[in-house]
Batch of 2 targets.
Target 1
Amino acid sequence: MKIQFLGTGAAEGIPAMFCQCSLCRRAEKQKGRQIRTRCGAMINGRILIDLTPDIYLHKLRYGLDLSAVEAVVVTHSHSDHFDGAELTKRSTKDYCSIRQEKPLTVYGSETVCRLGRESLNLEFGLDRNPSLSFVPVKPYDTWETAGVRFTAVPACHDPKETCLIYMIEDGKHRILYANDTGLLSPEAFDFLKNTVFDMVSLDCTFGAGKAPSPGHMGMEENRLFLEELKKRGCLRQNTPVYATHFSHNCGMLHEQLEEEGRKYGIGIAWDGMCWPA
């Protein structure tokens, strides 16, 4: 399995679009790994995790063949993770040409599926399109797509909708992709018991220290999250852990985050990073 972190920033990105804070100005000047676009990932060149408003930039920056993508697996409906307007551009009747086309399947909560259909209706006046199909997902559902098995685990993020993180397996590797979320419920942690992960990716919106709100994490919550996984036999001694989904409000450049992460045994993901390297 190959996973590429297409974006590692929170909703506003780094530098934030309308911001004049010192971190955003420094990031804009230094560029490189300081630049963080909206959070999403690609698996094996065939599955997107989330469809961000930066997906066109990602296509250009990383040379992605988005016509080869068979599925989009969505964590939740917030606009930095699911951009319905970009989804409509997959219509081969209107916006693209794909030889031997198969419909792109979108997996997500009932809210995600509803908003996807609403986007189609706004764009085309219809809530259906032969280029797209929607599959509603509930917590603890399991399915396979493009040779990869996904299991939905309930996140702790927005109480107004079902938000999900994902266990992802291909028969050789198993990873936990865990953002946007705070600490999971005891039931969700217990569901993962004795499931050993080869890599873990954690929300770290608030950078060093403790998060001021429960729907995201900082490194202190990351530490507690990892302790819960260890208690349940989910981590090997050398399981790599990466933090992602950083907000400019954490006030830390990439190198500062790396220095802090070393105290917790956590690596810092950057835009374009691949695992395995």
Note: The chain has a mean pLDDT of 97.
Target 2
Amino acid sequence: MKRVHLFEIHEQWWCPSFIRDGVRDGLFTAWKILFWKNTLPHLRDLLRRSKKPTLIDLCSGAGGPVPLVIDDLKEEYPGLQVSLTDYFPCRAWENPLGKNDSVTYMSERVDAKSVPAELQGCRTLFEAFHHFKPDDAVEILSDAVRSKQPIAVFEFQRSRLIDALSLPILAVVPIASFLHFWHTPFSFSKLLFTIIPVIPFILAFDGIISILRTYSTEELVALAHRAGSEHFRWDIRQSKEKGWGQMTCLIGWPAKEGGVHVVHYDSPTSKASYERQKIQART
């Protein structure tokens, strides 16, 4: 589908904070139960190309799946450090998995389009890229190119009509609405507005809008070319690891032989089989 930039309810200034927190907790639960393992092979690939084992997570919101990812990668990368950042950082962030000295949340505002030079490491965006219009999305990618920093963009939905009609209602909403009581801190406001189905409605509505706002493979190719690919390698990948569903991701890192590639990531756990097709620059 061609991307359509509509609004999501939980992003609006008038959405009450306790409703927004309930939606974020629901999305964290969906990541935890369904999707997060799909990101692991790509993060391992990116960390191997980085000068130091550090992740700079952009547009973190309430933290997303990052604590889950770090908990899995810490044995392979024992010195791995993670900085969570956001343009509107959480005032009092708590790790839903418990205290972890490897994960910190920066209290200072960080613009994903202009990351401070002192934040060096692999940049990640989990389920946030579709929030940006094309020009802003290009700025995020261009800043990684200028700074010569690897970057990984993950979206657990794809730009498909069947996903827009089925994924939020059949999978995400039931899990995110009710199971989050077992996976995130309890609050009576979340319980009340789940029984009165405000939070489930917003999860369903925003889930459909998220899919309509998601960039297709062809659109990601165009964004990567605009961001620059002369000495920067871009992979647009669709893959499935152990999680539910197929994930779309955009991976980039400094490389002598740059370019933009579409990668059919067939079997990341066995031989990491790649079928690569170089995409020519489009006018």
Note: The two ends are 21 Å apart (CA to CA).
